[in-house]
Request: fold
Amino acid sequence: MSLKQFFTRRKIYDDLAEEIRLHLEEKTEALMAEGMNREEAEHTARREFGNVTRIEERGRETWMWPLVESLWTDTRFAVRQLTKNFGFAVTAIITLALGIGATTAIFSLVEAVLLRPLPFPESNRLVWIDQRDHSLPGVASESLSYPDYFDWRAQNHTLSGIASYLGSGVTYQDAGGSQRIDAQTVSANFFDVLGAAPMLGRDFQWSDEKPGNRVVMLSDSFWQSEFGSAKDVVGKTIGLDGHNYTVAGVMPKGFRFPLENPAPAMWKSIAEDAEGKDAPASQRGFDVLGVIGRLKPGVTVQQAKADLSLIAGNLARQYPDNNKQYSSALVEPELEHMTGDTRPALRMLFAAVLLMLLLVCANVAGLLLARGQRRSAEFALRAAVGAGRAAIVRQMLVESVALSLCGGAAGVALAAGLLRAILKFMPVDIPRIEGATLDVGVLLFVLAVSLVSGILFGVLPAWRTSRQAPVNALREGSRSVAGGRGQHRIHNWLVIAQTAIGMVLLVSSGLLMRSFIRILNVDPGFESKHVLTSRVALSRDTYKHDQLVLFYRQLLERISALPGVQSASAGWPVPMGTNDATISFKIQGRPLAPGDEPSESLGVVLPGYFETLRVPLIAGRNLGPQDGLAGPATMVINQSFQKKYFPGVNPIGQRIQPGIGDDVFNHPMREVVGVIGDIKHKGLTADADPQMYLPYAQAVITNPYLVVRTNADPAAMQGAINAAIHSLDKNVPVYQVSTLDDYLSKAAAEPRFQAFLLSCFAAIALVLAAIGLYGLLSYMVAQRTLEIGLRMALGAQRADVLGMIIRRGLTLSLAGVGAGLAISMLAMRLIAGMLFHTRPTDPVTFASTAALLVFVSFIATTLPAFRAARLDPMKTLREQ
Amino acid sequence: MPMTNSSKTEQRDLFRGALEMMILRSLLREPMHGYALVQHIKQRSNELLQVEEGSLYPALQRMLKEGLVKAEWHISASNRRVRTYRITLSGKKHLEREISSFERMLAGITRVLSPTEA
Reply:
C-alpha cells in the first residue's frame, strides 16, 4: 500500500458507504414500484443485500496493509505457541528481563543525568563561565572574583546576561533558636539569567547589590517549613548570621540552582559582600564565584569564549598583580560542564549493560535455535503446504518479538526495583541522579530495546529454520544418527560469542575491582577510625578574634575531659571534605613579581590537630599552644611542600609569607617550625598536594572542624560534645556532624559503586555464558543419544563418551575465552582513565578471570557429559 | 464468494474468482453501476444464480485495487447519482485469461463426471 493510498483511503471508504446506501435506496424504490409499502420494501432490500456492516468491512479490508493483518495472525499464533511451551517461554523471558531490566535501569540514570535538558527555559543557551589559569599545565580553570565578574558582565557583547553565585552556610535565627542552612549569595540578575521568576514578591534589582540592601529570596521548601507558606512573608525581616535581611520573594516549587546537593534553602543578594572596608566584592584576588551566563540568541559558545577572552586579556594587562595568569576565558555549555565528571563512568556502565544485553540475546537465540530444531517438522509441513520462506521467517520473528516484549515488560518491573536500589545505596553525589525515573522516554527506550533485541536474537534461528529443505527437515525431525551439522555450527558460534562477551565483562569488572582494592589500600596520611567531626557556627560578629580563640581553647579542654575521648582538636579543611583554599605566598630571599607568586593549599589548625589525626611529624615540631596570639607568627608545611620548594634544604627556620591574614595577624612573615606527613585532602587517587598549615589563633579565617578521637563508637559521643558546646554558648548551632570514616568512605564511593555494579553485570554474564554452554551441550547430547548409544554398543567406554562431551565444551569455552581476552586487550584501554595504579592489561586480572570462566564452563559441561555417559546403550537403541 | 441458488436452502461456494469473472464479463458489454450489475447477473443467469447483493461490493473493491475496473460518479439517465464501473485494458486481459483457464477446468470436470468413463 502506497502512502498516497493511505491518505486517500478515507475517500475510498466514504465512496463505498455512499454507494451501498444508494444501492439500497434504488432497490427499495424498485420494490415499492412492484407494490410493496416502504417499510416492507426497505426490509426486503436489506435482507437481500446482506449484512451492510460486514460487507463494508470486507470492502475496506481490501485496502488495508496485508502485513498488518498477517502480523496479527502471527502474533496470536505466537502467543499460543509460547503458552503451549511454558517452560521455554519462562526461561527466555526471565533471561530477557535480566538484560532489558539492567539496561533500562542504567539508561534511566544516563537519561536523568546526562541527556535530560536542564530545568530552565531555553536551557541550551546557558553556559558555565570561568577564567583559564595559564600558569598551570593543561586546561585549568579558576573562579572569577567579584571585580572581574563585574567587568565581564559590563563589557561583553555575546551574552544576554551573566550571573554569579557563591555557596555558603548561614545561621538562621528565629524565635525558637538558630539553625545552620545552605544558602547562595547571588547577583541581582541570577534568576533572570536562569529564566525563572519568583512566584511571590519581587525579583532582585540592581540596587540590591549595593551595600545596605540585604534582601533574600526564599526557596519554596524553606518557605513552607519555616513560614507555613504564609503569603505575608514578603517584606518581613529575618535574621541571618546576626544581620537583618528583608524577604524579597519566594521562588516557585522545583526551582533550584546550583543543582548540586544540598539544595539551597535561600538566595541572598550580594549586598553583604559589598559592605565593609575590605569588602570581598572589591577584591580582585578573591577568586571564588560560580558564574553562569545566557548566550544571546544565535551566539555560539566559541564566539562567547572569544568575546570574554578579549576582556580577560585586557584585565590581565590592567591588573597583573591578580590577573596575570588569567588571560583567557573558559566557556562550556552548562549541562556539559555539570555532567562532565560523571560522563565516562556512566558511559562505561551503559556500554557494559549493552554488552550484557547482547549476551542475553545470544543466549535466547541459542534457546530458539534448539527449539526451532525441535519444531522443524512443523515448519517443514508449513513449507510443504505452500508457506513461503518469508512467511516462515516472519512468523518466527513475530514469536521472538513477542518473547522479547514479554521480557521487556518483566524487565521494566526489574528495572524499577534495581533503580530504587541504586538510588538508595549509591553514596555518590551525582547531580540530578535523584531525578532518574521510569518515565515515558525510558519506557519508549524499553520498547525499542525489546523490539531490536527480539529481532536480533530471532533473525538467526528464523533464517536457519527457513533455509531447511522441507524433505530433510521432515526426515531429520524424525530421527537421525548425527544431528543437523549446520545447526550446530551456528549454535557453536553463539556459545563462543557469549563466552567472549562474558569474558570482556569479567575482565573489566576484575580490573575495576582490583583498582578499587588498590584505592582502599591507599594510605590517606591520617587515621580515620573513631574520629568524630562537627562544626560550630560561631558568628564573627558576636565573637571577636580573641574570644573565638578562647572559645575553642575552653571547648577543647572540656571535650578532652569527657570520658571516652582520647584527644580533641580542630582544624580546617577536614580531609576528604569539600572545602579547600589555595593561597599565594612569598618565600623570604626569593623575590618574584606579584603576579608570578606560587600558590598552594592552605589549612588552619588548633593545637593537637595532627596528633589527634595521627599525622606523623617528620621534622621540627608540631604547632602547639605557644603558637598563639602572643607568640611569633609560625606555620608548618607538609613533605610535598618541602620537596617542591626546599629540596635539599632544611626547611625549619625558613620564612614564608602567605597572602592571607585576619584583623590581628595581617599577612605576617611566618617561620616554618615543622614538617608533617602528607595528608590526602582531595581524594585517595590523587597525590597529596603541597600544603601549608597556620595556627588558628594566628589566622582566624573560618569555622574549623572539631576532630574528636574516641575510644569506641564515635557517633555515640556527639550528644556529650553538643552538651560541651552548649555549656559555652547555648544558642550556637552545631552542623556537619560526621565521622572521618564517612569522609574517607565517600572518597572511595565512586570506584566502589562502579566496581559493584560492573561485578553484578559480570556475575550475571558468567551465569548466562555457563547456561548457554550447558544448553548447547544438553541439546547436543539429547540429539546424539542414538549416536552415543551406538558408539557404546560398539565398545566405546563411558570415559570416552565423557571425554568427548567435555572436550567439546572446553573447546568452545576456550575459543570464547581466547576471543574475549583478545577483545579485552584492545577494549580495556577505554577504561584506563578509571583505573588507579592498575594497568588496563593487568596480567593477573586477565589470567584469574579467564581461569574463573574456564572453571565455570567446565562445571557447565560436566552435567550433560555425565548424562551422556550414563546412557544405557541397549535401552537407547531399543527406544530409537 | 458465497452465492445462493434459487432454492435458498442449499448454499454452495463458487470457486474463487467466479464472481469477478461474471462482473468483468458484464462490464465488457457496457459500464454499469452496482445495482444494475446485480440485476444484470440475475437476469442473465435466469435467476439460477442469485448473488447476495452486498457481496458484489467487496469484489468490486478488490478489482478496483488491482486496476481491473475503474469507477466514476455521475448522474444516470434516470436522474440518479450512481457510481459507474468500467472495465480497464488489464481487466479485459485478466478476463480472457480467466475464461480460458475456466473453460479448461470445466472441460476436465465434465470429462470426469461424464458417465461413459464409469
